[in-house]
Amino acid sequence: MKPESNARQEVSARGKRRRLPVAWILVAPFLFFYVAFLIYPSIQVAYLSFTNSDITGTGTFVGLQNYAELIHDADFWASLWHTLYFIILTVVPNTAVGFLLALLVIRLKRLRLPILSAFFLPFVLPVSVVTTGALWLMDTNFGIINYLVGSSISWFQDPNWAMPAVAVGTIWWTVGLNMLLFIAGLQNISPEVYEASSIDGANSFQQFIYITCPLVWPVTSLVLLLQLIAQFKIFDQVYLLTQGGPYNSTMVVLLYMYRQAFQQNRGGYAAAVAVALVVIMLIISAIQFRAMQGRRAK
Amino acid sequence: MKEKRFSFLRVVCTALTVIMALAWLFPLYWIVATSLTAETATIALPPTFIPIPPDLEAFTYVIQNSPIFRWYFNTVVVALVITAISILVSLMCAYALSILEFKGKGLINVWLLLGFMIPFGAMVIPLFMLMNQLHLVDSYAGIILPQIATPLSVIVFKRFFDQVPKDFRDAAVIDGANEFRVLFNIYIPLNWSIIYAMAIITFIGAWNNFLWPFIISNSTPMLTVPVGMTQVQSAYGVAFAKTSAVAVMASIPTALAYLIFQRRVTQGVVAAAGIK
After folding, report:
1. Which of B90, B114, B129 to mutate to test the interface with A (most CBs of A within 10 A)?
2. What is the pTM of this model?
3. What are the boundaries of each domain within chain B?
4. Contacts of B88 (CB under 8 A, 6+ apart)
5. Which of A142, A262, A296, B17 could form a disulfide with A104 if both were Cys (CB 3.0 to 4.6 A apart)?
6. Span A245-288, pLDDT tens digits
7. For residues B238-264, average pLDDT
8. Is A13 on the interface with B (CB under 8 A)?
9. Coil, strand or helix: which one is A61?
């Protein structure tokens, strides 16, 4: 009795004494990288937006001047609109196609794994491979797509087609992720629910509408939110496929920021563009999150 | 009768799925096929659908005329270092957040969520300035450092650590083990499968990353494969066999990593999204 309680006391005493420093030693390495390369830059970007810094960071405080300019900058508003256009072209279609593919794949047995990997494989490839493929397959003169369809569309050189073409490439590239998340969500639905409903005489269509769709809704709202956040920061595909052209028709916010910073050497103004993007993203994500929560509660 | 019609429908559905999967793979097949076609044959009509015999001209040209192997080396170094350090520091941080009570824990949890909200793209300007001041532009350290802290790994590991029974640690502590030994001898072995999964995902993500390496590396020898291959494109102009050959070479590591560790990748992606 006595030695045991002594040992316990010793353990807890030692635990208490050491707990604080040991915990900090454990979190310190991660926190160092996190603070230095994530927290600090996000504070710094807000500060820079109030200066007229160049890209090396030298400049003076100018107050709200960058924001005053931003409000009247037609190119910025155009880039914001192009980003929203891209979001409209991708977020819901990418989620819908992912759901459809998940429904098709989940009913397979032996073919499940190979088919699943066929749809997911593009997602693990570098963006530049995807854009190389897109530029080749959708080439105006020698592209296989125009050859097979019998069209002669200049996908990436036509201002009307450029953004839809970028969106199609993006969906081909990333839909595998959505499919995978939906498959996981569908697998979480207990088979007993289906069994009980078929005893009650529900057919497969009714089961789909009244069981599958509502029960998979949490995953749907998650996918929609992840998609929204992902598509808001579109940069890579547009930079590699069209460089914002033709006639700035695919000039998105991050590309506009990049141009201002690294080509116009206007670090401060570019920082203001970045801050505006983050603020708009946060507001729209919050609205979407709330709308989803509301629908789920019903 | 009804049974039969039902199974007929099932066959049609399966056939449709297979056709769609093949259509999904077609662009990849087309890139591989083009890379094995002679440059002059790529722009001939009708196009060559099956390149037999395969022509390796494009690959030999790219290997001889671009620093592709140097880029491979850079990318392997960068991706491996990022994966190793990122997973290690995330595990340590997740262990402390899951098991120990200490001042500032709440603050760290809030910061981690904050990290999700801020897109990396919005921070490249101050990050570039910081790297410039540290003289790390065009260096491995410059590419690696900002990619180490991934809040997602910490959150996933913490969720798995939370499920380990507390008795395991208590017993080890009574036997005189310190927190590091508890982490490395109990928590890590127990969660080996998710750690493995997150490591593969981190590796694939680091290999594929475009935006940051693109911003921070300026000189040709310091590029990573995904950034370097765009240089090949602009240097060769209209040379579809050669650009396809580079694309094939750039895809091999991550495509192989996925095909070999398929289940792990799936598990990690699903866990990262918090569905399971």
Report:
1. B129
2. 0.90
3. 2-59, 64-273
4. A29
5. B17
6. 899 999 999 999 999 999 999 999 999 999 999 999 889 888 88
7. 91
8. no
9. strand
B18 touches chain A (CB under 8 A): yes
pLDDT-derived band at B276 (thresholds 50, 70, 90) equals low
The reply to whether residue B275 touches residue A185, judged by beta carbons under 8 angstroms, is yes
% of residues, chain A, pLDDT over 70: 92
Q: Is A225 on the interface with B (CB under 8 A)?
A: no
H or E element at residue A209: none
Residue A202 is predicted with a pLDDT of 85
Q: Do B122 and A257 touch (CB under 8 A)?
A: yes
CATH H-level, domain A68-297: superfamily: MetI-like (1.10.3720.10)
Q: Taking 70 as the threshold, does the pLDDT of residue A62 lie above it? A: yes
Phi, psi angles (nearest 5°) of residue A235: -150, -60
pLDDT in tens, B38-60: 888 887 777 778 888 888 988 99
pLDDT band at A6 (very low <50, low <70, confident <90, very high): very low
C-alpha distances (whole Å) from A293 to each of A220, A225, A286, A287, B25 are 12, 12, 10, 10, 37
CA distance to partner chain B, nearest, from residue A19 (Å): 7
Asked if A154 and A140 touch (Cβ cutoff 8 Å), the reply is yes
Q: With a CB-CB cutoff of 8 Å, which residues 161-200 of chain A face chain B?
A: 172, 177, 180-181, 184-185, 188
Say if B130 is an interface residue toward chain A (CB within 8 Å).
Answer: yes
Q: How far apart are CA A95 and CA A292, in angstroms?
A: 15
Look up residue A197 and give its amino acid: S
Answer whether A208 touches B (CB < 8 Å).
no
- CB atoms under 10 Å from CB of B188, counted, come to 16
Check if the beta carbon of residue B157 is closer than 8 Å to that of residue B194. yes
Q: Where are the alpha helices (DSSP H) in chain B?
A: 2-35, 39-42, 57-65, 68-99, 105-117, 124-133, 140-144, 151-161, 166-174, 179-182, 188-190, 192-208, 211-216, 225-236, 240-260, 262-273
Is A155 strand, coil or helix? coil
Q: What is the pLDDT of residue B112?
A: 87
pLDDT at site B65: 87
Query: Are the Cβ atoms of A274 and B146 closer than 8 angstroms?
Result: no
Considering only the top CATH level, what class is B64-273?
A: mainly alpha
Smallest CA-to-CA distance from B95 within A37, A28, A13, A39 is with: A28
Q: Which pLDDT value is given to residue A9?
A: 44
- ipTM, two decimals, is 0.91
CB proximity B93 to A under 8 Å: yes
Put simply, the answer to whether B97 touches A7 (Cβ < 8 Å) is no
- pLDDT tens-digit series, residues A185-201: 999 888 888 888 888 88
- Check CB contact of B211 with chain A, cutoff 8 Å: yes
Q: Domain locations in chain A?
A: 1-48, 68-297
166-185 in chain B: CB under 8 A from chain A: 173-174, 178-179, 183
